[in-house]
Amino acid sequence: MYTALRLQRRLKRELGRGEAEITVVTPDPYMTYQPFLPEAAAGAISPRHVVVPLRRVLDRCRVVIGEATAVDHAARTATVRTPATEEEGTDGSRIEYDELVLAPGSVARTLPIPGLADHAIGFKTVEEAIGLRNHVLEQMDIASSTRDPAVRDAALTFVFVGGGYAGVEALGELEDMARYATRYYHNVRPGDMKWILVEASDRILPEVGEEMGRYTVTELRRRNIDVRLETRLDSCADRVAVLSDGSRFPTRTVVWTAGVKPHPVLAATDLPLNERGRLRCTAELAVAGAPHAWAAGDAAAVPDVTAGEEGRECAPNAQHALRQARVLGDNVVHSLRGEPLETYAHKYAGSVASLGLHKGVAQVYGRKLKGYPAWLMHRTYHLSRVPTFNRKARVAAEWTLAGLFKREIVSLGSLEHPRAEFELAAGGKPSHDPPHNPKGSS
Ligand SMILES: Cc1cc2nc3c(=O)[nH]c(=O)nc-3n(C[C@H](O)[C@H](O)[C@H](O)COP(=O)(O)OP(=O)(O)OC[C@H]3O[C@@H](n4cnc5c(N)ncnc54)[C@H](O)[C@@H]3O)c2cc1C
């Protein structure tokens, strides 16, 4: 989205004269600002405000809702599967291009752990964030209404695997929201819930540095969150999370945020990949040895020119992705006009993370912040970064309103099954498990 925005601005004249055309292929008609997903899960931002409608902001581009399934760069052709091609029963339509920008991001890096594919959920999309919020509140409802202690215990046990941004922020925000929600339950207390963070290495949140990572562990443990370092999830079959330290937790909630890998579509191209499957790129954001192909973000292995002799790649994070996208847009225009290309250089500025309402941790340009100041910095920084003035205004308004009223604690899990009520009324059998069936998959 950022590259297309840049291109539509810089090629305004050419677009107006019909000399250029920008096509954006995207599975969803919106861009997700992922750093806001934990706050969306906590109910602090409504889901619609975490996303940016592409048709509105990219008004001079052709937006194609679909998924690129293959790219033949030698033939300058991409194969795209759209809802229409699926209905027509074809294997996709072909789009010809002159310049290719490939930025499909990353997907969850999973392992062949028993039960993982069947029971776990990721935390990368707005659907997952909202689904998880509804699920946590629904588990509290189950715990509140059951007489079976085993069902209650499993419902109130929440296991998060992976101590990076996504895992720590999602757990921090959801635990905070659930702790608040207990005040409206007559028989669920904060101490009845088990929140567990499982991390294979000896630290969490490497993005905020070692000292702040240690602080985060202490802070989470102070909140009674069970942080287990140097521990792995071995199995979650039969709805029991088995950890490498031998502990077993019956649970209905396993959130998998243990790292990412480049999007699999990259392997369906004739472009060069590095040993980790990212597109081999130059510091000008061109794909190495493939003229007219460009890449940025999590999918691109871009040399970090600020690292000196170390020869590092830019880490997969939003900080690099947003800045790379702008330089990439400029370089495509430079290349079309025969001008010299710009080099992408950005020294990692540090990171901010929220751990719940009024709680956070940050390390920015060497300055370390904890608690309320870090949380405030997290909000200020991301408000300045979320795209479009429209979104900034809506998010700011929501935060202001939330400061004046009590938090939202309602679960709208039935939104995921909008036909259930009607199916029942029409005498049919609901095509899914009732949301409150404690033995079913909720
Ligand atoms: C919960 C969470 C919190 C985070 N917090 C932070 C943070 O605080 N700070 C930070 O720096 N980073 C953070 N990150 C990481 C950051 O969001 C990512 O690094 C960044 O979004 C990568 O940008 P991208 O454009 O490469 O990929 P994405 O943002 O993932 O965008 C890729 C797009 O390509 C689309 N796509 C995929 N496949 C295809 C296909 N075949 N055809 C067409 N389109 C396709 C996808 O649908 C998606 O819209 C966070 C991530 C998560 C999940």
Question: Key terms for this structure?
Answer:
single chain, 442 residues, alpha/beta, FAD/NAD(P)-binding domain, 3 domains, 5-stranded parallel sheet, 3-stranded antiparallel sheet, 14 helices, 21% strand, globular, disordered C terminus, binds flavin-adenine dinucleotide
List the SSEs and their pairings.
Layout: H1 2-10, H2 12-16, E1 23-26, E2 30-32, H3 37-42, E3 51-53, H4 54-57, E4 62-65, E5 67-72, E6 77-81, H5 83-88, E7 93-96, E8 100-102, E9 106-108, H6 116-119, E10 120-121, H7 126-145, H8 149-155, E11 157-161, H9 165-181, E12 194-198, H10 210-222, E13 226-228, E14 233-235, E15 240-243, E16 248-250, E17 253-256, E18 260-262, E19 279-280, E20 293-295, E21 300-301, H11 318-336, E22 350-356, E23 359-364, E24 367-370, H12 371-385, H13 389-404, H14 420-425
Parallel strand pairs: 1-4, 8-20, 10-17, 11-12, 11-17, 12-13, 19-21
Antiparallel strand pairs: 2-3, 5-6, 6-7, 9-18, 14-15, 15-16, 22-23, 23-24
The chain binds flavin-adenine dinucleotide (FAD).
For the biggest β-sheet, the strand order reads 10-17-11-12-13
Distance between the termini: 34 Å
Report the structural category.
alpha/beta
* Beta strand %: 15-25%
Gyration radius from CA atoms, angstroms:
23 Å
Fraction in helix: 25-40%
- Residue ranges: pLDDT <50 for 5 or more in a row? 434-442
The number of domains is 3
Describe the sheet with the most strands. 5 strands, parallel
